[in-house]
Amino acid sequence: MKFKYLFFVALTSLGLSACSDFLDVDSVSKYGNEDVFSEKTEINRALNGVYAKLMSGDFYGDAYFTKFIFNSDVEFTTNTSDVATDNSFRRFDGNSTASDVEKFWNAGYAGAEYANNFIYYLERSPLYNTADEEIMQMMGEAKVIRAMFFHDLATYFGDIPFRFEPSAEVENFVMPVVSRDEVYKALIDDLKGIAPYMKLAANLSNGVERASKEFCWSLIARMAMHAGGYSLRPDTNNPASIGTMQRPTNYKDLYKTALDYCDSVMTSATHTLTLPYYRVFVNECNYVVNSNDDPIFEIPFAKESSGNVGYVHGPKSELYEGSTSGDNIWGEAKSGAALSAFYRFMFDPEDARRDYLNGLWGYLYTGEPTISISYTVYNNKWSKLWATSGNPESAGNTGINYPYMRYTDVLLMYAEAANELNDGPTEGAKAALRQVRQRAFTNPEKIDPYIENMSGSKEDFLKAVLDERKFEFAGENMRWKDLVRNNLLAENTYYNFLRYLVCGENAGGTSAYQEMVEEYDEMPGYLDKLPSIVYYKIGANPQTPSEFPNTSLRIIDIYNPYDDVLVGNVPDEYRASTVQYPYGWASDSGIVNAQCLYSFYGYIYCSLKDGLIYLNNNGNYVAHAPSVGAVLPPVRYILPYPNAAIQRSAGAYKNYYGYTK
């Protein structure tokens, strides 16, 4: 049963009010009813208010998937502007006046403040007793949610304002800025202390829709991996500098923590990868909660009131006069949380995830399928169209849960940490990777032989783990974080840009960078084999959810989705319906399209004016000739503190990373 507590009723009835900005000292969050923490039912209702903050569209409910999931070789959104902008953070381009970043900041701190309040007052409750299992479980849930918010704030903003005390209980309402190292230490120690008192998901009334002991362990591991990995550090002597990528000297201690807590989850034997890959997400689209399979914690969005999962993902579904009709009973889907056009070509052809994830058609309001193969493809991991029923007038607020933590992540974190600590893969690391690949492949040659082939060195095995994460977590806001942690973001962004540029240049002639890109991708000649024209026909629904989860709408069958073909080889029934595949990413006169030039603008772009490539080096765009093994400056993925927060801090907060201009 889906978690359907009355979150917002709990907020109003208990007097739990949130300030619109955590620095606004005139409207501080405070519990107005002293009796709230004297009765378990009321405490549980107050806890619902903490959960409710997870649902904000300015944070996990939408922005987390649409505005602050950076362009990579997995998630991708095009941009055609050749000038700096305020809010284009997906292409690493924005500033401290951006409204989106201010909303994101405020929503994150509102969530942390709610949790701080709950924890503070529960600790002072006459019912607070470590021998009371219910009370300690509720305390654990609040602490885990608090850690979620602070962890993601530190991931995006680096060193952050931080404290555990609620604003109403301290003299100085302005939180002090604390280094991310200290933030992570405090959060990890806090969760280590509460974890023994928490219950396993199987023993919770709402399973993985509540923060469980396994989730607490998993979050400790995730934070330790992030804390021990590389991150962009500011040059405090030169705020105009973008900064440098560094990792802490005690990173192996942190990786050991991650390894130990992943092991705790694994040895608890409470989660498996029994369901097929597609079924995990189709179940979420149908509000089916599986508490003993891959999901470890799902943010429990409320149907028709929160969460845009499956509205910003999946095939596009268009409206006419505010509704859909005919075969399409599911309403609108914007489908803007798309995937790179190159992503699907990186998969092994036998990988079950490839054809499920990469969507190549959408739907008109009538349910008529329409081909859609462009600079991006749809991310079919979730879709409101995967539900068995729908509302023709619906749009966002799908209520589809988001799996913030999966067992797959735990297995792959374990493999990565063990490989790092051992200077190469252990048998346990290989076994963890094996579990993930066994779900993706039926051919045994793609499992053990592949793993053994990639186990010859620490570097090869790390590549295997990161590749597996790349193919697992599309749309889950993971890829750029994995790259940052391993100091690979600059390299990845560099070659992502070049892939698009090469295809654009090839449309008008030839590109000097094609061989370089193909060598990096370890796929010689593949850019010449991409289909320039695709041949398709509209067909009947296969009635096979593993092939296409919607069993009502017609589908498009593409004869050559992955390779170019000769016209003479195309079956007759496909000839009448062809569509130009936009690997002709240039105008008829050979000018490369803006989508190929400016979608990474904050880091690298190509000027139409002079045809030169420019690379952002410490805030200065320098003309650059791409080369193999180039020493690359860091990518400014860190977000700026919002200007409004800086002003209200009365000078306590200051931006670095080149956001001073």
Explain what the structure shows:
The chain has about 650 residues and is α+β, with helices and mostly antiparallel strands. The protein has 21 helices and 19 strands. It has helices spanning about 5-15, 40-50, 65, 100-125, 135-155, 180-195, 215-230, 250-270, 275-285, 350-355, 405-420, 425-440, 450-455, 460-470, 480-485, 490-505, 515-520, 525-530, 570-575, 595-600, 645-650, and strands at about 85-90, 95, 160, 175-180, 230-235, 245, 295-300, 340, 360, 360-365, 370, 375-380, 400-405, 535-540, 555-560, 580, 605, 615, 620-625. Helix 2 runs parallel beside helix 5, helix 4 packs antiparallel against helix 5 and helix 8 crosses helix 11.
CATH class of the domain at 7-241: Mainly Alpha
Task: Indicate the overall shape.
Answer: globular
**What structural class do helix, strand and pairing data support?**
alpha+beta
| CATH structural architecture of the domain at 7-241 | Alpha Horseshoe
Note the total helix count: 21
How are the SSEs placed, and which strands pair?
Layout: H1 7-13, H2 40-52, H3 63-66, E1 87-88, E2 93-94, H4 99-123, H5 133-157, E3 160-161, E4 177-178, H6 180-194, H7 213-228, E5 231-233, E6 244-246, H8 251-268, H9 277-285, E7 295-299, E8 339-340, H10 352-357, E9 358-359, E10 361-363, E11 369-371, E12 376-379, E13 402-406, H11 407-422, H12 427-440, H13 448-453, H14 458-472, H15 479-485, H16 489-507, H17 514-521, H18 526-529, E14 533-539, E15 555-558, H19 572-575, E16 578-580, H20 594-598, E17 604-606, E18 613-617, E19 620-624, H21 643-648
Could you name the key traits of this structure?
661 residues; alpha+beta; Serine Threonine Protein Phosphatase 5, Tetratricopeptide repeat; 3-stranded antiparallel β-sheet; 21 helices
